[in-house]
Specification:
single chain, about 350 residues, alpha+beta, four-stranded antiparallel beta sheet, 12 strands, globular
């Protein structure tokens, strides 16, 4: 481990991830929706799916998908308007449960977090038992299910939490970590997006074993500052600590699309990303003054456009207006747009309780 962590032995990291969080809250609160394919979002022609229940996912419906596409894949899909105030309230209940076990909590969004339970408030020795207890407490308190990944570092804990979804958990031990990574397709690696996965594919890197076979210098040459990270995780090594009070320079989200040539589908695709970054800021009481729009074209060239305002944004509508302002001048584009991203920077602590209620403009 790094010099920052002077505890002996491997760390015990738990990644807790709520199952289809927004959709599950809606099914919990409306029994008529249980067992049915549900999408949180708007069915309008320009609507976008913000979240999908597991019943909907069986039809290939997923977040960030245009509503018309989702309805084509699943004609019986039921759309429900989002209620972010409710989701945040449930998230705070879950956070309170985490805090009974450890102060070392690093939230990633309203529905997932890393917990370092190497030393914990319950004095429990076995991390898998802590994860089981936390999941049971979440179910008893909120009526919702959570999945968990348990491992000796953040990367593997995150990967493990996807293995037995929904309502399950999975352990990756120090002994099994390197072998687990070797057999995993790199496109499934946390931190490897579609563009990076495609670049790895062109370089003949399809699995963790392929990645491990490349030298440190090769990875730095082709992936720059991400090279050392890829070199480490290919060997099951990730020395990043769980940082409960981490100071972030920016909060961002991005997604890949089929070639976009007009404003409307680009704006629709950005909406879930806007909500995701605002969601994170609201959950962590972060204010932001700078908005950056990232656009990557079909030839993999990319541009960014930023706007800074004098005071932290107060409402998601403010963020939406700034994104519109940055996006509109880019059309018509010189070629198809493959990837879009939104990030917030110039971050600072602020209380969101006095801000207008979060809303989703769809």
């Amino acid at each position: 481990m790094t010099g920052e962590d002077n505890r002996e032995g491997p760390r015990k990291i738990v990644h807790v991830d709520m199952d289809a969080f927004y959709a599950s809250v809606e099914q919990r609160d409306n029994p008529e929706l249980r067992g049915l394919p549900v999408a949180v979002g708007s069915p309008a022609a320009r609507g976008v799916v913000a979240a999908a229940s597991y019943e909907a996912r069986k039809f290939g419906v997923h977040s960030a998908m245009p509503s018309v596409t989702a309805q084509r894949k699943c004609p019986d899909l039921i759309f429900v308007k989002p209620r972010f105030d409710v989701y945040k309230a449930v998230s705070l209940q879950i956070r309170a449960i985490f805090a009974e076990y450890t102060p070392m909590i690093e939230p990633l969004s309203l529905d997932e977090a890393y917990l370092d339970v190497t030393t914990n408030l319950k004095g429990m020795e076995i991390a898998t038992e802590i994860a089981e207890e936390i999941r049971a407490r979440i179910k008893a308190t909120t009526g919702l299910t959570a999945s968990a990944g348990i491992s000796y570092n953040k990367f593997l804990a995150k990967m493990a939490s996807d293995q037995n979804k929904p309502d399950g958990q999975f352990v990756i031990t120090p002994k099994n970590g390197p072998a687990f990574v070797e057999q995993l397709p790199v496109k499934k690696f946390h931190g490897v997006g579609p563009a990076t996965a495609e670049k790895m594919h062109r370089l003949g890197i399809e699995t963790g074993a392929d990645l491990k076979a490349r030298t440190f210098d090769f990875l730095v040459e082709h992936f720059g500052k991400s090279g050392p990270y890829f070199y480490g995780i290919a060997r099951g090594i990730d020395n990043r600590l769980v940082k409960p009070d981490r100071v972030r320079k920016s909060v961002g989200a991005e997604d890949t699309f089929s070639d976009i040539h007009t404003f409307e589908p680009a704006r629709e695709g950005l909406q879930p990303l806007i909500e995701k970054v605002w969601d994170y800021c609201g959950a962590n009481e972060i204010g932001a003054k700078t908005v950056t729009l990232k656009v990557k074209y079909a030839d993999f060239s990319q541009i960014t456009r930023s706007k800074t305002v004098p005071a932290p944004l107060l409402a998601i509508t403010d963020l939406e207006e700034l994104v519109d302002l940055l996006l509109a001048p880019l059309f018509p584009p010189r070629q198809g747009i493959r990837r879009l991203g939104v990030s917030l920077s110039s971050l600072g602590r602020r209380c969101f309780e006095t801000a207008p209620q979060l809303r989703l403009a769809l």
